[in-house]
Input
Amino acid sequence: MKYLIKAKFEVEGIVEKSDVIGAIFGQTEGLLGEEYDLRDLQDKGRIGRIQVDLKTQNTKTYGTITIPSNLDRVETALLAALIEIVDRIGPYSAKISVEEIIDLRAEKIKKIVNRAKDIL
Output
């Protein structure tokens, strides 16, 4: 994978991981045409498995969403903006905000360079 989209979310109720993933797929389906359909992108290996980590506190659910992407930088940014439009998860209102897009290749290059320096 080339990039990693990291986002956080807050839901005004208690939900499960499957609710979050279902909302992302359901509310983004068809918005930007077939070429940005998340199911197709996953089937073609252009994006990886959507990971959700969550915790509940009182009557709210908080968490993070991680999406690995093999798309180019611009398409990955478009995908990141696409998931931010999700405004309901289950029966509750929700807010998703992208924190960062990590360039995994740049991170690997940094590790290689640092290791090469250590070897010298």
In short: The beta strands are 3-11, 51-57, 60-69, 88-89, 92-103. The chain has one domain: 3-119. The first helix runs from residue 17 to 28.
